[in-house]
Amino acid sequence: MAVIGAVTRLTESGLSITKWEPVKGALPPMNDAAWNEAYELYKATPQYAGIHSGMNLEEFKGIFFWEWIHRLWGRMIGVVFALPLLFFWIRGMIPKGFKLPLLGIFLLGGFQGFIGWFMVQSGLEPGQVSVSPIRLALHLSIALLIYALTFWQILRLHSEQFKLPRPYTWCLHRHTLFTLLFLSITIIWGAFTAGLDAGKIYNSFPLMDGRIVPTDFIAFDDWLKNITANPAAVQFIHRVLATITFVLTATLAWRMHGIDKRLSFALGGFIILQYGLGIATVLTGAHIILASLHQANSVLVLTSVIATLFIVKQKSS
Fold this sequence. Notes:
The chain is 70% helix and 0% strand. It is an all-alpha fold and 317 residues long. The model has no long low-confidence stretch (mean pLDDT 93). The two termini are 34 Å apart. Helix 1 (2-10) runs antiparallel to helix 11 and helix 7 (170-195) runs antiparallel to helix 11 (288-316). It has helices at residues 2-10, 32-43, 46-50, 57-90, 99-124, 133-157, 170-195, 223-229, 231-256, 261-283, 288-316. It has eleven helices and no strands. The protein has a domain at 161-317.
């Protein structure tokens, strides 16, 4: 789902469906008349006039596909989660302490659908050619929160399998928490970077066109607006956060080597790959394949950090 969302954003496909139809919208246009109607609705949007002016119907079908499959995949996730949950709930097969968390995840998934449409609406407003970066970041944040909470329940179900040879320390726990915090913020700023197409400027590394701090780092007097809506500042902040996250994750991998070698290699391998993909994405001006892999691998880094946090916390209990 994260990869599909990345491709949808990178291909400027997210505004191709201008209606929110939770049930009827599960099916794509089924005949020429329906396709022409969807095409005409898109032609009335500011994005069509500003970015895709002159796009023909066949080209429209290409961007429509990505937004449609993105929404369909969201519906499928809801069904795959809800039906087994209902079955196990009725049969009394859900272990003690899992009902409320699972129900909460399901409700959060429904809320995510609304946030997705809330994000799309921001790009359909007069004068807008893309969705709000803040709403895009919110949409991605909730998606990853759902993923993290679901993965945490999986770990809880298998908690008896985790046995550590070394005692828990508050220092290691704190290190893991800081890593998770900085990783989360870095991913959020990655959403700002994608939303502003900030990866398509300053395509050099490690300097930004020969400077550590870009010349247009300050474009707005409002500091909050500057760090979330100024492409130069957003890319710079994303670079700094990514470097701090790299150091935190790499050192965490080193500390975990004597505790759990599989997690140590996962942490180290994924964060090295992530940093490399980030550099490659910048150097290529956000090439669609590299940028999509960059987002996908961020989920793998997140997974390994969450697993580390769970194992560290297990030892403390």
